[in-house]
Amino acid sequence: MMMKQYLNIFFVTFLCVSIFGCARFTTEEKVSWDKAYNNSTEERFIPVELFTGGQWDGEHELILKEVSTTACTSVSGRQRPCDNIYLTGPFKTEKNNTKIKWAGNELSYYRRTFSIRGGEVESFFTINNSRDGLVRIYDKRKQWGARTYNGLGSKFPLGYWKQGEVRTYASDRPTSIEIIELDGPNHCLTFRWIVGSGKGRNSDNNYTFCPDRGFTNLSHNNTVEQVGPKLQATVNNGIIKGNISILDPQFGNVLTNIHQDSLKQAGIKLGDTLCVLVKEGNITKFDTKLPYLELFGKVAVGEPLVYVNSQSNLSLALNQDNFSAKYHIGSGVQWSAQIKQCN
Description:
Helix content is 15%, strand content 44%. The protein is of the alpha+beta class.
């Protein structure tokens, strides 16, 4: 009986220590991500761990640390469950057949795999020659077999970057990376990657990566719908009419085609209360007053607001909640948004 009581006490003590240890680590890690952005320089340090979904210790250094992670990646515009993407490593090549000079005779790399209808895709990633990004050095898939790359381009930004910054890389086919949202909700990063002219399949995409999750979303910029005629917002007598162009698949924010210049034209300024009307065709789906604010933290958790996103367009959101899911909002030409200043 005494032994049983002792074991119970030991188990409870061990459980408490484990729980508090995990809580402390989670808090420390959050602080690390909070401090990745420097307000004075307006730069963010992007570590390798944002790509892998691994735990980050906050050190501003680029190292391929051991990981074995699974990311759940969704594709904007597709009504299907997210795809699992597996990342393991680092491994080492027997010799360096790339133009990555800093690495010496061997290259450390991560192996990423996922399945598509054409079979399994296998890719190898390492730090590029300019040491400001991760680059793909090997790719194998059913439709084109195995390919190797010289390591001069970039597929994911690393190190210090600024909001809106664009960098180009003179690889076999010139590539560029543009920061769309440097430090979004939950410290997620969204960037645009273009290879060549950007007109080919999968050659102009937006990618989102989040701490502890890795690759979360892919959005194609050159789909048939997106290269067609663009609808423009209008301003008349202080009333702005536009459309809901897309939904944020990660956080449920509703993104309109109403540019912040339209708000100025209508005489709307930060701090104003706005009457917001959302319709699907002729059916009213949302009709209420919302504050127009710069920061999510200026409303309580779960409360709605209007803000201007990193692309300078008006968006509807809930602080730490999913606006589109709660109010059953969709996107497309049949979804309209009307904004005006409330008295």
